[in-house]
Design brief:
Layout (H helix, E strand, L loop, with lengths): L1 H27 L2 H18 L3 H11 L5 H24 L5 H7 E3 L15 E5 L8 H9 L2 E6 L5 H15 L2 E4 L3 H8 L4 E6 L13 E5 L2 E5 L2 H8 L4 E10 L2 E10 L9 H16 L16
Parallel strand pairs: 1-9, 2-5, 2-8, 3-4, 3-5
Antiparallel strand pairs: 6-7, 8-9
Helix pairs in contact: 2-4, 6-7
Length: about 300
Amino acid sequence: MAFEAANTFWMNILLTAIFLFFVALIGIIPFWFLYRFSDFMYFLMRALGYRKSVIESNLKRCFPDKDDAFYKNLRAKIYHNLTDILIEGIKALSMSRRQINRRHKILNPELLEDAELKNKSIIAVTGHYGNWEWGSMSASLQSGRKIVALYKPLSNKYIDKILMNKARKRSGTQMLSIYETSQGFEKYAPQNAVFLMAADQSPARGQKDRAYWVDFMGIKTAFLHGPEKYAQKYNMPVVYIDIERVKRGYYEIRLETLVSKPNDWAEGEITALFAQRLEKQIRNKPENWLWSHRRWKLNS
């Protein structure tokens, strides 16, 4: 046991060192060159058929009337989106504030100061669409509100700590583990905070009984119960974050009020409203969503 623990420790140290090397390397490489590397990764990912069966299964569920040419063409675009997001996620650790503000621009941050939202904590929901990761930095830099971003910690605690510390120092965002969600809402809800939640992933099988089942992409789909639960518990308005890629490496974000009085809505209705809004965005440009996730695993 002691030998295995020591091996795990040194393996984590090695992986952390390799990670830091690539972070430093990518930090000095300009964006235009990084996207050439993303193109190379795209060809590798496509050649190896990364999660091809999962992607095709998801596409055929959502677009059952399409032909093989449609699936093949869309899968190629999905791979390109995925490699760009991976590269941009690492590049985020060395981006300047000016770069973040230029490349992930919130078009209407003043919405957070509207009468219905001012002086209240807010839940801002989005999907894994486009570059959602830069939002944890751009929100703090452009909104003037306290930002609390919920995230799933990495298994390598050393890399996770580096990522979270860099994100916090770069923008001032408070990073909150999803395993501390209840404590985080209790602590920050009274502080006029904005809680960022990407809420479109499939709930774990152990959460199946607490999930809300709504119509999404023409399928009865389980959604995480958290955003609606905490919105109603703390009487927080819910804002939708619409992320659109305007060109490679540049995104525009538009905020929309989904619900201003959450306790006026019946159980499951806020979640259904979020699902409908996200579906509208996905159907507009499906290639920008994270199709490689086993979204409908609870249906099988």
